[in-house]
Amino acid sequence: MNQPLKHSILACALMQAFAASAQTGPGTETQAEQPVNEVVVTGNRFMALDRASVGGFGDASLFETPASIVAIGRTRMQDLSIRSTTDAVRFDASVSDAYNAVGYAEQFSIRGFALDNNYSYRKDGFAIPGDTQIPLENKERIEILKGLSGLTAGIAAPGGIVNYVTKRPTDKPLRSATAEVSERGTLYGTADIGGRFEDRRFGYRINAAAADLHPYVRGANGDRQFVSGAFDWQITPDALLQLDMDYQRKSQITAPGYQLTRGEVLPTNVSPKLLLNDQPWTKPVETRDTNLGLRFEVKLAPGWLATASANKHWFKRDDYTAFPYGCSNEGEGYYPGYCSNGDYDVYDYQSVGERKSPWGVQAMLQGRFDTGTLRHALTIGASYDERHDSFGEDVYELVGYSNIWSPRITPQADPARYTTGPVFERRSDQESALFAQDIVTLRPDLTLHAGLRYVKIKRSEFDKDKGDTGDYVHADDSFALPNVALVYGIDRHWNVYGSFSHGLQHGGIAPMLTSNEYEVLPPARSRQVEFGLKGALSNGLNLSAALFQIRQGLEYEDPFQTINGLHPYVRGGRETHRGLELSADGTTDAFGYGVSLMALNTRQDGTGQAGIDGKRVTDVPAFKSTAWLEYAVAAVPGLKVDGVWQYSGKKAFDVENTVFVPDYHVFGAGASYALKMGATRVTVRARVDNLFDKFYWRDVTPSLGGYLLAGAPRTFRLSAQFDL
Q1: Least crowded by CB within 10 Å, which of 172, 191, 208, 220?
Q2: What is the 3-state secondary structure (H, E, C) of 493-553?
Q3: 451 — phi, psi (to 5°)?
Q4: Which of 315, 293, 241 is nearest to 124 (CA)?
């Protein structure tokens, strides 16, 4: 894609935004300035939102919801220059990276459980692939549910889900644009346009963005384009139809992680800026994804609402990597691992034409009624979801070696001999469900939340080892997922709750370089017990605490079994996560502040292997915290400064706990200044992350042979936001 075409979408959106402002003439100044209050932060509210939809079947007060939930709104995303989910989740101690490589997919864990790329990421409640950077330009907020979500989401990893809520049309004209420069010359621009047509029953919201990517990893360059539209039609005062659509293309060279030296010790004197994938023949990972959403709601009677919604997603990826794995230049070699002198083998990895196409529909009826002295808030509904995954046999060919201190050029695999095998549908899932929840007010200070989801799942998967040429294997199963919670209001400022719930997740997929690679383990149930305390005080201070235990079967690469020279990926025994979460945020006249802490004890047991039982789960710190403080400088109206501190305890690299990566502290700082330029409100923001240029291992995993991803060095960004 040539440069003029690459940025044409953004340019058109910017021109439309400012053209709309130019059309406002005398007597319209008040109307033109009204949107400023909707999109510009004035410094009096620097905290998460107090409502979310992810904890139930519609927007509800976080104070009254018996679950641990964080909602990060558009205002906070603008204040902190949040451009990706990675930027957002660092402010919650319960969320960590889980093979979150630069230039690849953003992947996370919650409460120590890695999220499922197929089911743990949601757009307006519907599952979407988490195999690329999920765009935030058309998102009103990010909601994070920590813990089991079986009642509301069905299949999902036990740690929780991340739900992205789409922006909707605004009642007043909205014209906003942002330009930013960051890191090694990354250029980013976005436009946000909203309002109503002359017939005010119809509303629109258009978002567009483009980026020329030059991240801190030298050579991991790329580009990205995004455009979206959301439209509302108020058919009658009681009937609303909503439509949204978006398209994103991203092309970027990925930056793989390091391995242990000799498979035993952490590599030393390495740089987070080094691109291990740096070869002349290296190609970027290219993804294209499109989403279409539809929702219709109608008020049937006072207190009763019926909704029907649907979502369809199309995802395509061409995956290329000069893959660093193993050492064949020393003795009998190390697999995985690097040589003592820093040499590592280089493989030409190609997987072209990968496709995922999930879709889903849901119908729901909600209403309120009384039975005697009891008040009910009832939800009943049904849903159906499908996903189809297509891919071919990948190329994975040894082509040479390089070195972490003295990079070398290697040849490419012969394209005449090595190409991705035929792409066809390898896996399909069907999930049908019936669900019901009744929130019963037993008395003014006591509420019972009782719900049940009945899920029936079917899977069809191609097994290349079945028969002479391979064939499909089929599996059916059904599960009942209960969720019960009791909320007691100590007074109007404090609630305590206790809950018990079941969750369901598909089995993990055996990763590359295992003896059963790409095999999917059977579905599994997880169980959670949680007790919590929430306070919403009149001085603007919000407090919450949650004590929880989650158990599920343990999935791991078994180091004590070897089949054809590789370890199998198995489920055996169980893992138990017991933890305590604490958070506080609030505001005063001059200050905004927030603290998030998580203490987590993880334990593997029941495998019958002394080298694993009793050990910690990998890539999970025992303690993690983050804190931020913002100050509005009274002497300079419009100026705000802030600081951020993050801490993570040490983490186990492998299931046997023979290697740990050390703990780390990281600091950041930012400032913003708001001013008026005629009818335009301008907000200039500057940030520096990793202020003291600390080297640390932020993300470690035994998957894919075991990889370590270094944290970003000191990085800068400068932006200007224009609101008309």
Answers
A1: 172
A2: CEEEEEEEEEEEECCCECCCCCCCCCCECCCEEEEEEEEEEEEECCCCCEEEEEEEEEEEE
A3: -145, 160
A4: 293
Contact 403, 344 (CB under 8 A): yes
Instruction: Say if CB 686 and CB 149 are below 8 A apart.
Output: no
Residue 388 near residue 357 (C-beta atoms within 8 A): yes
C-alpha 21/C-alpha 150 separation (Å) is 47
Among 388, 365, 227, 229, smallest CA distance to 309 is for 365
137 pLDDT more than 70: yes
CA torsion angle 12 13 15 21 (round to 10): 160
Contact 241, 233 (CB under 8 A): yes
| 380 half-sphere exposure, CB direction, 13 A CA radius | 4
Give the separation between CA 205 and CA 608, rounded to whole angstroms.
Answer: 57
d(CA 707, CA 618): 12
Taking CB atoms within 8 Å and a gap of at least 24, the contacts of 632-638 are: 632/43, 632/44, 632/589, 632/590, 632/591, 634/590, 636/673, 638/673, 638/674, 638/675
Q: Give the span between the Cα atoms of 548 and 47, in whole angstroms.
A: 24
The continuous run of DSSP H or E covering 410 comes out as: none
* Predicted TM-score of the model (pTM): 0.91
SS3 719: strand
> Which residues neighbour 111 within 8 Å (Cβ) at sequence distance 6 or greater?
94, 146, 147, 158, 159, 160, 548, 550, 577, 579, 598, 600
> Is 180's pLDDT higher than 90?
yes
Distance, in Å, from the CA atom of 517 to the CA atom of 564, rounded to the nearest integer, reads 12
pLDDT band for 516, please (50, 70, 90 cuts).
Answer: confident
What pairing do the DSSP bridges indicate for beta strands 113-114 and 471-491? unpaired
Strands 569-587 and 395-403: unpaired
Alpha carbon distance 16, 604 (integer Å): 57
Task: Report the pLDDT value the prediction gives residue 415, as an integer from 0 to 100.
Answer: 83
